Amino acid sequence: MYAVLKTGGKQYKVSENDVIIVERLTAESGSKISLDEILLIGDGGNTTVGTPVIEGASVAAEILEHKRGEKITVFKKKRRKNYRRTMGHRQELTVLRITDIPAAGKKKPATKKTKSESKANTPEETKSRVKPQSKAEKSKSDGAEKKRAPSKKTPAKKGK
Prior knowledge:
Blueprint: E1 2-7, E2 10-15, E3 19-23, E4 32-35, E5 38-43, E6 46-49, E7 59-68, E8 72-78, E9 83-89, E10 92-100, H1 115-120, H2 123-129, H3 135-146
Antiparallel strand pairs: 1-2, 1-5, 3-10, 4-7, 5-6, 7-10, 8-9
């Protein structure tokens, strides 16, 4: 069984007893946490895909340690302008061991629209729900359309 989870803006494919390094989490070392943003769970031939996440699904993990990554050098330069800046950065990281991937969460049943809901979304009603613009907003939008590029002036002729 495996899962694809999202944490720290990145996605990780994990299975039980995997050790992964993610961006810093706030829990203390040795504690157990639950990661809730599960995008996909695969179990042999059965695959559950979330839209975008699977509701009710989670992955249990244990925090092994907090550490810092390698130092990287950030160098900025603008040529011929005598501008140079050097900075360093070390990302704070958390090492996790995946302890358990429970079965996929229950999918929500597809809701059917009732007649009153389907009628409420007709194009005529959506047009009537659009908020009319105030005079100030209209004048701002009209002013933006009426602006033109200034005409080029011909240079004055030099007298002899």
